[in-house]
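DM from R.C. (forwarded with permission)

"hey, sorry to bug you on a friday — could you get me a structure for this? deadline for the figure draft is monday and I only need the backbone to look sensible"
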Amino acid sequence: RPLEVLLDVAHNPDGMRSLVQYIRDHVSQRSLQNISFMLSVLDRKDVQGMFAELRKLCSDLSAQGIQCEVV
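My reply, with the result:
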């Protein structure tokens, strides 16, 4: 079975809400069990708000902070 990848640049809770709705509209309930999310968020963004939207699709979320300098 081919690997399907969806790339999205949702960078705030509203964008994440739209992404979650898109996934609900286009992905079967069975397939939702096999979805993995990878999220990269700058510290000045509302990561808690974005996670709140993603929790509507999956309950197992974790975050790892990293240090990086934006130039």
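R.C.: lifesaver. The longest helix spans residues 13-26.
me: no worries. The two ends are 41 Å apart (CA to CA).
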